[in-house]
Fold Site-2 protease family protein.
Amino acid sequence: MDFDIVQTLYMLPGIIIGLTFHEFAHAQTAVWLGDDTPRLQGRTSLNPLVHIDIIGFLMLVIAHFGWAKPVQVDTSNFKNRKRDDILVSLAGPVMNLLLAVCFVILIWAISYIPESILDSNTLNILQSIFVNAVWMNVVLFVFNLLPIPPLDGSHVVFGLLGLKDSSLYSQIYQMSTFILLILIITNVINIVIGPPIEYVYKFLISPLL
């Protein structure tokens, strides 16, 4: 596997911001809905060090597959346990989609800055960083919606089906690492999430082309 240090540096801001805001969104939404656990554990913060798992971060940078520290939630504190658990789960991916939109706006905005203020070389660097940030947040948005535990999509799908507390969910959860590993090794995961990632990315970025 070739490791492009320049490309990696362009990706880092998008990865750090994407992971941090994703977990912050889970934590803050849970607090808003009545569970103070994330706040007591210091997770309602935008400090990347609070949310980033170093192994997961390095895996994401090197292998393009990684993770952050999961936000712990006590669903018994919610007024509507099923609905609120789904809302907390959706908060992370939705935040990544909103970030992707924000970075698209930034790409558009800096293109109007006069060269007397922002030289072309700096502009190209910023555009590369922002474009990579759009891509990374779209990847996080789509990937986390997969209905495989412990990904957010599993909380949504199994919650809607009323199976979140079932033995089936527990059994799948116990095998989740193995399942994800097999999907990655066989490239099935890229076949599944590649098209929606491309579609969402092109939809967001096309107005700038």
